[in-house]
Amino acid sequence: MPPTAALLVIDMQNTTVAMAHRAAETVAAIAGLSERARAAGVPVVTVRQRDEGMVPGTEGWQVAPELAPREGEPVVDKTTPDSFLGTGLDETLRTLGVTEVIVTGFATEVCVDTTARQALSRGYDLVVVADGHTTSVRTEEDVDLVPADRSIAQANAVYRMIGWPGRRIRVRAAADVDFAAPEGAPGVRPA
Predict the structure, then answer these.
(1) What's the pLDDT at 188?
(2) What CATH number does domain 5-176 carry, 3.40.190.10, 3.90.1150.10, 3.40.50.850, 2.60.120.200?
(3) In the chain, where are the structural domains located?
């Protein structure tokens, strides 16, 4: 049976977008992907972080306008890097019949990575959108952090190499994600 995909948009809120590396490019990639998903009837699930820096109802907590969920679309609020932990995400995806998640968002090495691995552990196939996730801009004080471009590239490389028994894992550019792909492979154009 072909996978049924859902697009996850993780933590693309005003506060995180303001500190994001290549913010405009990442937002544009996710916005285009979201529109194509909606046009194909693929669910777009928005995940929002809630903490002392992103308080519900504040401007910083709001999802970036270009990525704001449409009326009736699922929205999941979380308080940890794991979009599944203590949330209704798994139930939402299972109710929608989802078997494959297409992961985008902020931050590459924290919430995106944690959610992607948890999706695999919970039985979902995975597509990591190579140009659809980002991390924070690095400053001179961030000497112990890998430069942002390298962090993103490393995550993409890890997901190209990682094996997970019984799961299909792919890394694709946003332009190569095709929600109407033939041959029982929704989510990715043939490579």
Answers:
(1) 47
(2) 3.40.50.850
(3) 5-176
For the chain, the average pLDDT equals 92
SS (H, E, C) 66-93: HHCCCCCCCEEEECCCCCCCCCCHHHHH
Residue 154 in 3-state DSSP? helix
> Phi and psi dihedrals of 62, rounded to 5?
-65, 145
Both tokens of residue 19?
């500190």
Residue-wise pLDDT for 55-94, tens only, equals 999 999 999 999 999 999 999 999 999 999 999 999 999 9
Low-confidence ranges of the chain (pLDDT < 70): 1-3, 181-191
Strand partners, 6: 101
Residue with tokens 């550019």: 173
| Positive/negative CA dihedral, 126, 129, 132, 134 | positive
Cis before 40 (ω within 30): no
Please, which residues bridge with residue 190 across strands? none
* Distance in angstroms (rounded) separating the CA atoms of residues 128 and 123: 15
Handedness of CA 130, 92, 188, 166 (dihedral sign): positive
Tokens representing 120 are 């695999």
Do 92 and 8 touch, CB atoms closer than 8 A? no
Res 178: pLDDT? 83
